[in-house]
Design goal:
Layout (H helix, E strand, L loop, with lengths): L1 H24 L16 E16 L8 E14 L2 E12 L20 E12 H4 L10 E15 L6 E15 L3 E15 L19 E3 L3 E11 L10 E10 L22 E12 H6 L7 E11 L10 H4 L8 E12 L1
Antiparallel strand pairs: 1-2, 1-13, 2-3, 3-4, 4-5, 5-6, 6-7, 7-8, 7-9, 9-10, 10-11, 11-12, 12-13
């Protein structure tokens, strides 16, 4: 009761001083109002670098498991009409996934392959575009138009060179403790390359028809991602967060015609599932230097699961079922790393 009285008194004194100040100000010449500073172009501009280690990754057509070191750069920004996400990763395999021109399945004396993978996603929020709150209902925060692209290449025998375009909608939901859950149904179009579809492996029906390039038909995709601080923990333990992602891509054909390539070599693709269903993050910088430095340095551990890698049927596709490469189209791996904000 005493504290409430003190607070009320302080508020009344402040109001009185404010009124008094306004009365005195009326006796002075009027001044032009100060100009309003323009809003910043980016309300969020976040850049991070990551080093991670994947213990039991796989590569279709090669040894069952290969460790990979991961070097990544991630940029995220929010501006007046939406968001932009750029993720660039460099993956360095061990000798179980050899770089060309080493023979396939050679396990010693070869450098591991190096893979580059990049993703870009941009959203344009309907609330912002139409200057409304009509697309915010309950936990639904916004509906957005989403576009993006993927790119991947690797210096190993298969010589993949994937390019992909995506477009669709994103539904953004709020979760407790500053969390979010995003759902994006997309239209997906992929082009790639496979060394198994070159004249060395397939006799072309006419010169130049079989060159290893694949042009897949458009298909559907569904991408999910989520994040939530573990705010229900005691204050002394509020350094942890959980996050995850999952993506499905529907069947997209063979990438070529069955007249050009027999089905025994290039089977139709199947639904691909690529996920990191759970990542546990420890906010090391907050624990050491305090809340001012929250998420400047994160240490995390995750689980990754990838079924039917690149759309290859893990039960029927030749690169997936050969005796020496059995289960190479399914990845189940522990994944750990350090992420630093700059």
């Amino acid at each position: 009761m005493f504290q409430n009285s003190i607070s009320l008194s302080a508020a009344l004194i402040s109001i009185a001083l404010s009124i008094s100040g306004q009365a005195r100000a009326e006796d002075l010449p009027a001044k032009a109002p100060a100009p309003i500073a323009p809003a910043p172009f980016f309300s969020v501009n976040d850049n991070r670098i990551t080093y991670a280690y994947q213990f039991t990754a796989t590569s279709p057509g090669f040894a069952n498991q290969t460790a990979k070191q991961v070097y990544a750069f991630t940029h995220f920004d929010a501006w007046a009409y939406g968001t932009n996400l750029i993720n660039l990763g460099l993956y360095k395999s061990d000798h179980a996934d050899p770089a060309s021109p080493c023979p396939v399945q050679r396990s010693t004396g070869c450098a591991g392959a190096t893979e580059f993978f990049g993703t870009i996603r941009s959203t344009f929020g309907f609330n912002q575009l139409f200057n409304t709150n009509a697309f915010s209902i309950g936990p639904l925060r916004n509906v957005s138009f989403e576009v993006g692209a993927n790119g991947e290449t690797e210096n190993q025998f298969l010589a993949p060179n994937q390019r992909a375009l995506a477009a669709g909608l994103q539904f953004a939901f709020d979760l407790p403790y500053k969390g979010y859950f995003n759902v994006a149904p997309l239209l997906f179009k992929v082009w790639n390359h496979s060394a198994f579809l070159t004249p060395s492996f397939v006799a072309p029906p006419a010169p130049g028809i079989v060159d290893g390039n694949l042009d897949f038909r458009p298909t559907w995709a569904l991408e999910l991602d989520w994040y939530m601080d573990l705010g229900f923990l005691p204050p002394s333990l509020q350094y942890f967060a959980i996050s995850g992602r999952a993506a499905w891509q529907g069947p997209k054909g063979t990438g070529t015609t069955t007249a050009q390539v027999p089905l025994t070599i290039q089977r139709p693709t199947v639904t691909e599932f690529n996920s990191e269903p759970i990542r546990l993050t420890f906010d090391a910088s907050k624990a050491i230097w305090g809340p001012k430095y929250s998420h400047f340095a994160d240490v995390w551990v995750a689980y990754r699961y990838w079924q039917n890698k690149f759309g290859l049927d893990h039960q029927l596709a030749p690169p997936c079922v050969a005796a020496a490469t059995n289960r190479s189209c399914t990845e189940s791996s522990l994944y750990s790393g350090v992420t630093v904000k700059f």
